[in-house]
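Worked example 3. Consider a protein that binds glutamine.
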Amino acid sequence: MKKIKIDDIRSVVKEAYEKVKTMQGGKNANYIPFLAKIDPQLFGIALCLPTGEVIEAGDTNYVFGIESVSKVYTAVLVLRQYGADEILNKIGADATGLPFNSIMAILLEKDHPSTPLVNAGAISADSMVKPLGDSNGKWGAIADNMTALSGSTLVLLDELYKSETATNFNNRSIAWLLKNYGRIYDDPDMSLDLYTRQCSMGVTAKQLAIAGCTIANGGLNPVTKEQVFKEELSPKITSLIATVGFYEHTGDWLYNSGIPAKSGVGGGVLGVMPGAFGIAAFAPPLDEFGNSVKAQAAIKYITQKLGLNIFRNNNIDFEM
Ligand code: GLN
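Given these inputs, the predicted complex is written out as structure tokens:
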């Protein structure tokens, strides 16, 4: 069993913040006008422990667009509502190896959106959210699930929602293409709107870290102490994150960092170290694949410094 001092984690988070703060490189997402305007200097790191303690550095209370990290939340919601097998059958759990908004991936997989953590699978997941046919009811379920995972309410960034709605032509094509393949289980336009709205939620790095820790902690929110989902779903959601969290660069990310993590074009990244902690970092400039440059560097630094890696020896003590 590995022993780690909480004080060491506090120092490593601070160190990561200082080291990465001045790092250059990357550009804000510019295909969603709202995101292009966000201050590129913003940067924060939050790490939440199963005790509920959140270790923070920098802009951890700044509210930014959750974007694709919201896919993790809705995946949890449909896993709660339908169970692991039905999600595998209706959406899938495979990596696409292609960008997050790929239409090619849908065509290649024919009738399968692959995973709830790319745009196609996320729109499909939104179509599955119960109560079916009831946009307000579905939105209520999505927002309540976000609150439960993060331990506090996320607020809709109205300007971001309008900005995305006015420019989401590619996602509209995805919704209707999936409808063609029988992978939209409710009204396609409604499902797309719910997806656009969930991506436009405002979140803080602190809220993301708490959600990450709820997943790392077998569904028990460490702050509110609410059991949000059944423990058995925890490895399912973590495996989805591990498989496709950085899209076509997920393999490189896992190889280098050893921690399943999910990025969003708002600049946020949420990481899950099972049994240990949830971690989030936020900084708007992205690399060419849509992943925050500083958030990746910070999370990688922290897990490496702490010597944690999900692929390491589990130190099992066999009994004869
Ligand atoms: N709302 C964004 C989109 O659909 C989310 C993409 C992302 O964060 N990777 O394009």
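Take a moment to read the result before moving on. Residues 6-21 form the longest helix (16 residues). Strands lie at 44-48, 54-58, 64-65, 155-156, 201-203, 261-263, 268-273, 277-282.
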